[in-house]
Design goal:
Layout lengths: L1 H11 L25 E7 L2 H9 L4 E9 L8 H5 L6 E8 L6 H11 L7 E2 L2 E2 L5 E5 L2 H14 L10 E4 L3 E3 L7 H4 L4 H17 L8
Parallel strand pairs: 6-7
Antiparallel strand pairs: 1-3, 1-6, 2-3, 2-8, 4-5
Helix pairs in contact: 2-4, 2-7, 4-5
Length: about 210
């Protein structure tokens, strides 16, 4: 009986559980000048957690949940959730470099998830939940390498974060966007996402957007 209770609890707390999909209209981004912004792409487990962790930070204009690492034809939630595509759940961060730099985003990324877990984050298991930095250019690649070496001593286990050139980012289905904001009472959000978001908020309290 205990075995089945554990399995049920795992399912209820999995990022693959969609919960109550909100009908809330998507954020109006029509006035954002993306050409004036820099872009970073990170994968660190469930994209609901990573997206919300970045959204609260000053200088982050928009964080978008999506898929990276695989083909456009397999950039679909049900396919990615099967673990049989090359995709990772990823978040594309559009930020103002005059307010926040890429190195700080890297520090936030390594706070928002556990980079020592291979192909999983907590209850979420599979290559789609891997830790990976998708760099956009050589400068981002070098900064990421330096940051990983710099932070290595802060973790008991080795950092297993992959470092890959971004070949394509595919926006996830609309109900995934701002999922934490739309579904604050969802079991996964309360038990898994919120502690990660609050951890980032505590460490980077001076960088939080004013409410």
């Amino acid at each position: 009986m205990k075995y089945f209770v554990l399995i049920a609890s795992f399912i209820l707390l999995s990022c693959q559980t969609q919960g109550n999909e909100s009908n809330k209209s998507p954020k109006d981004v029509s006035e954002i000048n993306y050409q004036a912004l820099d872009t970073a792409t990170f994968a660190g487990g469930c994209f609901w957690c990573v997206e919300a962790s970045f959204e609260q930070i000053q200088g982050v204009i928009e964080a978008v949940s999506g898929y990276a690492g695989g083909k456009k034809s397999t950039a679909d939630y049900r396919l990615v959730s099967s673990g049989r595509t090359d995709h990772a759940e990823a978040v594309q961060v559009y930020y103002d470099p005059s307010v926040i730099d890429y190195e700080t985003l890297l520090e936030i990324f390594f706070t928002a998830h556990d980079p020592t877990q291979l192909n999983r984050q907590g209850p979420d298991v599979g290559t789609q939940y891997r830790s990976e930095i998708f760099y956009h250019d050589e400068e981002q690649m070098k900064l990421a390498e330096v940051k990983m070496n710099e932070l290595a001593s802060e973790f008991t286990d080795p950092i297993v974060t992959k470092l890959s050139k971004l070949e394509g980012f595919y926006r996830a289905e609309e109900y995934h966007q701002d999922y934490e904001e739309k579904n604050p009472n969802n079991g996964y959000i309360v038990n898994v996402s919120r502690p990660k978001i609050e951890k980032v908020a505590k460490k980077f309290k001076d960088l939080l957007k004013s409410n």
